[in-house]
Write a structure and sequence with these properties.
Helix content is about 65%, strand content about 0%. With about 210 residues, the chain is mostly helical.
Length: about 210
């Protein structure tokens, strides 16, 4: 069972999952002042920060967790942790809050995957090389790629997201997922090759 304060935050935020474009009036408060208010568990400040970032974070979670209801639960759990841990956050300028929150959201999505899935990881690259896969990716339209990311197998999708989208290094991915760097690289290469195949089958002309 969740601690009482966690449950209260969930109950307060859950109605906003489908209303993340709603504007919460905070007057002329800047981000640092809102953070201070969040550290005092001010509901309005929490709602404002949630409303400002939830859409982008939800889309990010959906790249890992394909089911919408599960993604919503991951997002709410992540924001619960964000507000409970915000006392430990030290403001370092524009973007620092978003970066700090993003790590918590990603970690929560990965924890969900560990609880619910066994990654189908492969150990050989076969004939795919890094040069070929990176060159292939550079020819693809970003939106076309993102629309197909959720169709990738869980292992491919997770490593692709962490490396290409989030900017993690293979060493970080290996430590995060408890795999070897070689396996991380292999998953990335396979993901790119499969994306190329999927795009070619859809008639995007990447097979030439």
């Amino acid at each position: 069972m969740l601690p009482k304060n966690d449950l209260e935050v969930r109950q307060r935020l859950h109605p906003f999952v489908h209303l993340t474009n709603k504007t919460v009036n905070t007057g002329t408060l800047n981000e640092t002042e809102l953070i201070k208010r969040c550290k005092k568990a001010d509901p309005k400040a929490q709602e404002w920060i949630y409303g400002q970032h939830a859409n982008a974070f939800f889309r990010m979670v959906m790249r890992y967790v394909k089911n919408r209801e599960d993604a919503e639960d991951v997002l709410i759990t992540a924001f619960t942790k964000i507000f409970n841990r915000i006392d430990s956050f030290s403001y370092q300028g524009d973007g620092s809050l978003q970066g700090w929150m993003k790590k918590i959201v990603i970690n929560e999505a990965l924890m969900w995957l560990r609880r619910r899935h066994s990654f189908a990881l492969v150990d050989s690259v076969n004939e795919l090389t890094e040069e070929e896969s990176l060159e292939t990716l550079s020819t693809m339209d970003a939106e076309d790629i993102y629309q197909m990311i959720t169709q990738l197998p869980t292992g491919y999708r997770t490593v692709f997201n962490l490396y290409v989208v989030e900017g993690y290094a293979h060493q970080e991915i290996a430590a995060t997922l408890s795999i070897t760097e070689s396996t991380s690289r292999t998953q990335l290469f396979k993901a790119k090759a499969l994306l190329k195949k999927m795009l070619t089958q859809e008639g995007f002309g990447y097979g030439t």
